[in-house]
């Protein structure tokens, strides 16, 4: 370890120790941006950038587990990204699938990882869509086993989504809810999510024989929230975007109404733990007003 690395390690440790644990976010969203630029700067194929970004995702979830952050949403592939070349998409789909399998099998800090796909799986190649559905089913089975092993909890329930089932997440101690819940936004678009939520709401109302006028009278933000891809989960407290870009690009448009935002210059494969700790420190120092 060089002198600079040692200095960074000491600085990072000092920052980590100073983080107020009671002010840590319960849900972090991340726009993992910059893989292609990283590859271009390194003079390597684009796929190498995506592979480096995939390794960083696994490392990032380790950091979250270590710091006790229970829910993470990763923006991995947008609906707009589906317009890239077939060659790049083929490689990217394979890397995404392998990364999610690796995450699902990992136990960072001894904590299981629950991978929950969010997005329009019908837009994806069937092999990847099938892997994502399988992960959703595995997530539901693991939650059922966890429920059976724990005392009954009136605050917990299972919520059925378009991509499987997920246990409703409530604020609870690390001991009561040891898993790290990782939402992977693949084939995801924020506008499409809202459209899909409204469609599901209307279909449910129709199945109950309720008329359009009745639905319109009862329509509230909360009613729509119940049909989002992430229903049953807390909205993100903090959203981080790497690569220096300062926009959401349609990420969690509905859920981020009161989120705090942090933009980092580092490209995603270069994102370090010290960068993450700085983001958490910045978040902890903010006074959240929730529109007030």
UniProtKB/TrEMBL annotation:
Organism lineage: Bacteria, Bacillati, Actinomycetota, Actinomycetes, Micrococcales
Sequence positions that bind Mg(2+): 33, 260
Protein residues bound to substrate: 34-38, 50, 78-80, 84, 241, 247-249
Quaternary context: Homodimer.
Entry keyword set: Magnesium, Metal-binding, Transferase
Family stated for the protein in its record: Belongs to the UPP synthase family. Z-FPP synthase subfamily.
GO cellular component: plasma membrane
Role according to the record: Catalyzes the condensation of isopentenyl diphosphate (IPP) with allylic pyrophosphates generating different type of terpenoids.
GO biological process: polyprenol biosynthetic process
Cofactor(s) in the UniProt record: Mg(2+)
Active site: 33, 81
PROSITE patterns referenced in this protein's UniProt entry, alphabetically: UPP_SYNTHASE (PS01066)
Protein name: Isoprenyl transferase
Cofactor binding summary note: Binds 2 magnesium ions per subunit.
Any one Pfam family match given in the protein's UniProt record, by short name: Prenyltransf
Signal peptide segment: none
GO molecular function, one term: magnesium ion binding
Region (Disordered): 139-163
Cited Gene3D superfamilies: Decaprenyl diphosphate synthase-like (3.40.1180.10)
EC number: 2.5.1.-
Listed HAMAP family: ISPT
Acidic residues compositional bias, start-end: 143-157
């Amino acid at each position: 370890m060089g002198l600079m690395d040692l200095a960074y390690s000491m600085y990072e440790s000092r920052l980590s120790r100073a983080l107020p644990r009671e002010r840590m976010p319960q849900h972090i969203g991340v726009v993992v941006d910059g893989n292609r630029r990283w590859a271009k700067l390194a003079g390597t194929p684009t796929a190498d950038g995506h592979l480096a970004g995939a390794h960083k995702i696994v490392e990032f979830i380790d950091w979250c587990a270590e710091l006790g952050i229970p829910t993470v949403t990763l923006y991995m592939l947008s609906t707009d990204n589906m317009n890239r070349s077939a060659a790049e998409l083929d490689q990217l789909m394979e890397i995404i699938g392998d990364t999610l399998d690796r995450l699902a099998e990992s136990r960072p800090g001894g904590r299981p990882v629950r991978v929950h796909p969010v997005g329009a799986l019908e837009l994806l190649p069937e092999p990847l869509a099938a892997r994502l559905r399988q992960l959703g089913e595995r997530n539901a089975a693991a939650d059922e086993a966890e429920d059976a092993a724990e005392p009954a909890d009136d605050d917990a329930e299972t919520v059925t989504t378009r991509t499987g089932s997920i246990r409703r997440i409530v604020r609870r101690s690390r001991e009561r809810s040891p898993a790290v819940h990782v939402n992977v936004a693949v084939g995801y678009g924020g506008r499409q999510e809202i459209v899909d939520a409204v469609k599901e709401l209307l279909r449910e109302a129709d199945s109950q024989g309720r008329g359009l006028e009745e639905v319109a009278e009862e329509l509230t933000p909360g009613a729509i929230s119940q049909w989002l891809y992430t229903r049953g989960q807390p909205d993100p407290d903090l959203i981080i975007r790497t690569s220096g870009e300062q926009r959401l690009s349609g990420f969690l448009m509905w859920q981020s109404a009161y989120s705090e935002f942090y933009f980092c210059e580092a490209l995603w494969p270069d994102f370090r733990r010290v960068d993450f700790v700085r983001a958490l420190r910045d978040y902890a120092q903010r006074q959240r007003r929730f529109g007030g």
